[in-house]
Amino acid sequence: MSDSADDSDLIRKKLRWTDGMAMTLGIITTGIFTSIGYTIGAVGLWGMLLIWAGAALIGLLQVVLYSEMALMFPDKTGGIGMYAHEAWRKYFAPIGPLCVYGYWMAWSLALSAVGLTLGELVAAQWFPDSGTFFTLGSVHVGVPHFVAAGCIILVWLVNVLGIKLTVRLMWVLNSGAVVTLLIFIFAPIVAGQWSTSSFTMQFGGDWGGVKLAIGLLYVAGWNVYSTEIIATFSPEFEDTRRDVPKAAISSGIMLLVAFTLAPIGAAGTVGQADVSKNPVSYAIDAFEKIVGPASGLVTVIICASMFASMAASTGDAGRALYGLAREGMTLKQLDHVSKRNGMPVRQMTIDLVINLLMVFFLGSTIAVLFASNFGYLLCTTFAVAGFVLLRKDRPDWPRPLKLRTFWVGIACGIVVIDAVVTIVGFLNPKITGYGNADSIVIALVLLSFGPITFVIRKKLQDRQPLNLREDAPAVPGADDYTMSAPQPGLAPEV
């Protein structure tokens, strides 16, 4: 662990469990508005439900597992990547930096991808004839790029000003999206405008369509598992013991319900064919059919929701880098938070610069997103497996929330599913048109920076031997754990 102990005291405990839900709302609604339509076009509405609702259920089970681990390490920033590090360090220490770096990559690089999608929506709605302003290499820079850059800078600024301001803004930005989703779910049924007659399920290709389903789940992974973001912020909740499980489980349930009911309502209103033809603007078509012309309003709502998801991504990615450095797994300069408000400003500034460069100089973000999805799912797999290892290796470690023994079996089943999705999806980038053979190489190169910076930190900065296996304490010491053991009645088994 880093010697800069004073910085950890700067983390402010300002969040309530409802604030955790605010962080996930934008990510959930962004997935519904911008990603689900493509899956419906590929495999039909029922096929989409099988993939997204099924994965959302797995995501809900995962956040229950993460809740136990979050309360085991209540003062550690870094979320699920940090739990993977704690569990695997005694077996192979480089797994920790690999997982946390892959996790950071997924949340950080989402900024440029979501920002460009937001920019394309703005350009299509209000500047359809704007065209190209100038060319940088192979990138034809236009309105979408400047909108994306402006949003990336704004979400950085909002996060720098403090977590409470960020959360309040998320509630405001997501309120319209929540109302829209409720309209999608209930209004068509009440008005009699809803029908399932157009719904189909159409899997094809290798393994009787199973490979296609796995590929689509690989692409959807970041969206459907995203409620784990709450674990990264766990040291900042006012009452970590109560707030983290409530926020994580409530968000997981909300995600499952939203990914199940909202697409059924919208597709049942406009028909599956319309969703397939207009995988993003279908939300506008559905809203107009229910309440009348409102394309501009719905575009604003979608863009606001996407901006909120970018704000959450910035905060999460910055904290992941800080947690990585705090545990001595990456450059020492990143073990720092603002003395004014405890925010990881240096780390978020790195995200800002990287994503601005991607917006203006990278012709396509697809290969990078393919790599970041691989890193994210790899981290998820090791983190869930870490739950099992921590139960085996640290049975006496205080657990303010202790799940019943059958959850170990559930974790083992999820590890198998996540591992299959990660491996098959990574080795078959062409399944969904999400990449090619070059994408695999790019993914491995990008992920290699995690272990490389780990070696730099250990050998050059800390002047320590590079141990591939580290001692892991069986019980916490004063520096590892500050939350008292659970009192009777406060930590029931679940």
TrEMBL record:
TM stretches of this protein: 21-40, 46-66, 98-123, 143-162, 169-192, 212-235, 247-270, 290-312, 348-368, 403-427, 439-456
Location relative to the cell: Cell membrane
Gene Ontology MF annotations: transmembrane transporter activity
Location, primary (coarse class): membrane
Name the record gives this protein: APC family permease
Source organism (scientific name): Flexivirga endophytica
Region spans: Disordered: 470-494
Highest taxon above the source species: Bacteria
Membrane-topology descriptor: Multi-pass membrane protein
Alphabetized Pfam families for the sequence: AA_permease_2 (PF13520)
GO cellular component: plasma membrane
Keywords: Cell membrane, Membrane, Transmembrane, Transmembrane helix
